Amino acid sequence: MGFGSKWLKWIEVCIKTVRFSIPVNGEPVDFFASERGLRQGDPLLPFLFILAMEGFDSMMRIATQNRWIKSFQIGDRIGNGKEISHLLYADDTTILCEPEAEQLNYIRLILILFEAVSGLRVNWGKSSLIAVKEVPQIQGLASILGCKVEKLPTTYLGMPLGNKHKALGIWDGILEKAEKILSRWKAQYLSLGGRVILINSVLDSLPTYVMSLFPIPPIVIKKLDRLRRNFLWKKGKE
């Protein structure tokens, strides 16, 4: 990609000098080096991911420009729209196309070429083919890629996908998670101040991610408030 030798040396040093230590039976063991990959949360990770996926992005753009893959169009149809063929987020990739065997064969070819060039591998065990509308031949299309079939609604990157905008089912996972967290906290002795801190720092942040896309219904707010009150005042006044 044209990077200088000094820059490459910096990246190599940042990766090879990292050491890890993990607790075994409650005690940290000696530090050891990583054989592959980066540690979780490494600030280099998103930059290296972007560089690694540049080749895939280029191949997808060529495929859409030649109409081998027909992407998803948003906006109007008089030249002001935007075509989206793929989305990259962290280590997750979403490809959008029409349910045609020819297009999926092109996608499979692109992925094979990308694997050969980059050394990365597609995790087909975690990959899914999801149809937006009814597709009778969905199983046959999935066999081209060798992945499983999923149906909408589902969950993608922790966000409900395919649900109705105001469906209460969107918030079931948030309520269940809040109840599990509170059940663990109730087993511990916590002062009133400690319970307030936990509510403000942990419980109140649970729905924030989903709220960035979906408006939270009043009934869900009431349920969350009831959970908060029951946990806060479980031992009466202090």
Automatic annotation (TrEMBL):
Looking up PROSITE patterns in the UniProt record yields: RT_POL
Q: Which InterPro entries match?
A: RT_dom
Checking Pfam families in the record gives: RVT_1
Question: Can you give the residue ranges of the Reverse transcriptase domain?
Answer: 1-161
Q: In its UniProt entry, what is this protein called?
A: Reverse transcriptase domain-containing protein
Q: Which organism is it from?
A: Solanum verrucosum
